[in-house]
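Convert to structure. Protein one:
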Amino acid sequence: MADARELGAAIGELFLVEGVERRWLPVGASLENARVFSVLGGPEHGVALAELNFAQGCFRAAFSFDLAGGESLSVREVFEPGFQQGLIDLLRSLSFSGPRSDEVSAALGQGRAEPVLLDQSNSAFLIGEGGFGKFYRRCGDISREAEFYRHLAGSGVAAAFWGAFSYPDGSVAALVTELLENPRSAWDLAGLMLDGGDLQGAAKLAQKCGEALGQLHDGLEQSWPDSASIEPADLVAWLNARLAGYAAVLGGDDLSTSAGRALRDLAAELEGPFRCQHIHGDFHLGQLVRSGETLLVIDFEGEPEAAAGPMELPERDLAGLLRSIGYLAPADEDEGLRQLLRSSALEGYVSSRTGSRTFEVPERLALLAFFEAEKALYELAYETRYRPAMTEGPSAALKRLAWRLDGLARGASLAPGSLTALAQREYAR
């Protein structure tokens, strides 16, 4: 019978022979070690669940193993193209719970599951009649997304939740939702409209995106209330931890340094506490898809490479939407288009209960300005690290936003109460 140590060695050998090119791995990854944490099935055939440690982080993978004749051990990753049986063996070995448990159980009994090749950090599969699965690759607690889908069930804001597969220890291994028909991201749709000169169509789409975000926040607040609050000191501590991470990538860059200073100054002028609520955490145009006539929010895993813990304030999601719109109109000469799309998104968002509160409280408008600039700084660090050719957009945005932040902070410190007028003017719709 194959044990965990033998399987770990065989998996390491597999990566040594084949290389480590995988869709879910960063480019240039180099395997440091493989640790098998669970063996399902056996003794001569089964599935080994492993944590693979790379310099870029820890990832999870599943491997089908065979001990032919009790002597020669072979392993094969279950998500290899065309290897349907390995995926079925994996899913049959895990437990599943959710609204569609009977249907998923029947599909696995009939062998109706197959891998899907998608360019993403997780691995996708189809199951049964209209089920779409996501096998999580990152190590650690990844139960967040399943919780979001559970609380949004029936809201019409997210895809229908089928349920989740769990490891033997109860932690989430994979999620299953409805398979959306011909999904197109809002990012792709907006780009096509702008390329075709349809400015009004793009503005209408931006408004719908704002409405969808507001509906998401309203739905989460109602179904999953959060009684926590955030004090300005919490915001400053979170910011300082984030800035330290950016400095590790950007060094002493003048732009990031001045932006960080402006962010600290504005945070010092804010008066809390700010009431929390559950938010998406990584909201942008790519997280909205249109299926038929419906616009749905997807991917509730949270921000990749998140540092310093969560900051569960709805203005942070709205800032992500506004910054995503900025990528559609990044140049200075695009100011008119940028303002049109931003204003449309804000109009859509303010139609929600959560959105109306943001625009009724000047402090929360200033908080929006804070998160928008912080998001641009995050983008600059991210692009510098992964896509150096894309740094021009966030750099230009950061210059504009840091200047505005500086004005808000200076005005508030010179004239108490002026933050009201300054913030309302900044986000006038």
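Protein two, convert as well:
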Amino acid sequence: MSEQIGGFSRNTDGESLLGGSALKSLLSPQITTPAYFYDLSGIFKRVSQIKAAFGDAPHLIAYAIKANSAASIVKTVIEAGGGVDAVSGGELQLALACGAQSRDVVLSGVAKRDDEIRLALEKDIQALQAESVEELQRIAQIAELTSQVARVSFRINPSVEIDSHAHIATGHDKAKFGISRRDWNAAFAKIKQSPFLQLVGISTHVGSMLKTPASYLRSAKVVCEVAQHAQAEGHQLEYVDFGGGFGIDYGDGPADPPHHFAAEALGILKTEGLGHLKLVVEPGRSIVGPYGALVAQVIQTKVSGARRWAMIDAGMNDLLRPALYGAPHRIEPLSQQPQGEESFRVVGPVCESTDDFGDHDLCEDPDYVVIRDAGAYAFTMASEYNARPLPDEVFIRDGKIVHHSPSPGIDSWLAARLKA
């Protein structure tokens, strides 16, 4: 298991660093907390590391843009040689606006609107990843109306259970995702029936937070079986897509790095006699998660019986994962090492009991805290609940701030609500 490149660390004085820069030194009157900080250099190196694992084999690293849709990050992924896995028309437009080549983009999602399907056809992307026989029928009808042949992939449900939170396990029989085994023949029949459909790929996504490749490889073998059947039926496949879901260490134990998953997946593809096909992988969290940190100010502490509370200016509206999934995030003092003896219950300002980040060791009188591994599924899930504006975003490259996206502030929220 290789050492992570970049991301969060501490110097000998105990100061929190991101991408080698002291986070405390990056705070200024222009940057208000809560604020997300991102290490673009680390993200670039992470994508480059995955690419290197493929060697000369045809491949596409389709970044799951839903993990973090900041243009500065999307452009960094593309500059490093990645493409995009989009799950909406908006994400597709963002990917193309950030410089992604159309054939480096796939569009997934169980309920694509007609306008999103038309957009994908117009932009001639790598493929529409169809998740049901009924969706194939809709794609065929829209393609016929626009006199186009739709490039499609079957996103199959491999019936593979994984050890993960129920909300992020997507490859089992009760999930809404993918074409189930009993419908595979009907899907192939639909392709044969319509001159407006071209089957170019077989894909899947088994779920998220995979710490080792075992479940990933089980689903990959199912994809290979379906791809072999498709080729035997005469379909000229261009790629197979094994999905993403590579986990990271949130403080609960290390995960195999994404380039290990890529190398193992490539091995399966060659073993199954499909090495001539392009291999698509869809990492999201593993590319950006470790390279983001949320800095928050401690508004006050409170003692209530035997419990001590630290009340911070970041809430579940800024970082929803703990409330939504019970997800852990390491929370530490910004400028000192955790002392190991000053335990606080860290909570936010939102008027909900679920606005709770758990127990963490802080220093005696903390002024700021850093919430680690907050690069993925954090700002993208943020809201303005309780009239709390979206947080700042700060982007670092080579230790320096290269872009600051300020909070829209409370006035923007107030103006919009007064117009509603």
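The domain at 8-38+290-419 is CATH 2.40.37.10 (Lyase, Ornithine Decarboxylase; Chain A, domain 1). DSSP finds twelve helices and 20 strands in the chain.
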